[in-house]
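Review this:
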Amino acid sequence: MDEIALFPLRSVLMPAGLLPLRIFEPRYVDLIGRCLRQDEIFGVVLIESGQESGGTVSTASVGTSARIIDFQPMAGGLLGVLCRGERRFSILERSQQPDGLNRARVEWLSEPPEVALEPDVQSLATVVREALETLTNSQRFMEPRYEDAGWVSHRLAELLPLPTPLLQRLLELDDANARLRLLALMVEADRAG
């Protein structure tokens, strides 16, 4: 078990996914500074109720750790940060610092070993590859693993216009090929519609 800072958002970060953030709240500026100086991670969790900025929030119990991979100052005193998702975690206990920063004791969820795409979902790797080739800005930060069902399923989930509660359920699903089969149904429905 570890204790990490939480960054509640109205979005879901998948392992190996990229997340751009614009930081302006003092508690998060401090967090980002500490993460950069000490090469620390923080946890991204989906807000289920409450606001992203200020106030009390209720979040999902499963999230993804994030590591900063790039940053730049922006106009208006904002800080632009690009993060990459790493490991999934489950929140065991929550606390809040006086400055409002949320923290949690977390248990790291075991990641299934890299597994090949099953024949009935192999075509989805091509769908993901073709879609990612159009995203030239993000490509330099990607570490493609088109033969890994987990990586392909997470990228496909990010690319499809899915509601955040469904993305959260997909994040919590351990079986990568089962995740791909669910996503395949959505891709087929999108093509048919």
About this structure: The first strand starts at residue 2 and ends at 9. The chain has a mean pLDDT of 88. Helices lie at 26-38, 123-133, 136-139, 149-159, 164-172, 176-192.
